[in-house]
Amino acid sequence: MLDASRLSQRVRRVLAEANEQAARRHHEYVGTEHILLALARDDEGVAVAVLRNLGVDFTELCDQVDRVVKAGKGATALMSRPYTTRSRHVFSLAAAAADSLGHSYIGTEHFLLALLEEGRGIGAQLLMASGVTLERARSETLRLLGPPVS
User: Fold this and answer.
1) What is the pLDDT of residue 1?
2) Around Cβ 143, how many Cβ atoms within 10 Å?
3) pTM for this structure?
4) How far is CA 24 from CA 16, 35, 69, 140, in A?
5) Can you spell out the DSSP letters for 38-98?
6) Region 133-148: what's the mean pLDDT?
């Protein structure tokens, strides 16, 4: 179970942005693709730095999401959308990623690693199509943050 108190302020903003991304596309749910879009829109987080350093083209990534996931017919007025089963699984994997790195907080980098570890969601598929693998993302995260804390 995810301890919400561990979520960094940046992750809280990213998750709110994921909800907005879903609203813009008239989706009644928040999927892994919305989390990925929100991570890509964050200008200063570790996840976006990792993606930048791995050569991800954010404009192309957003275009790919729109090609793969068509606009829905849902209401844009919903304040908060439910997370899909895959997205909820990403939350658990993000907590595990933080634990494996010895971090007391859950940051954007942990969500990026969790998207990739989940592997089957649209977010992971688009990352992998962009050449981002779990191994490369983890390696770049460690390069930016330093080795795991014991």
Assistant:
1) 52
2) 11
3) 0.85
4) 13, 13, 12, 31
5) HHHH-SSSHHHHHHHHTT--HHHHHHHHHHHS------S--SSPPBPHHHHHHHHHHHHHH
6) 86
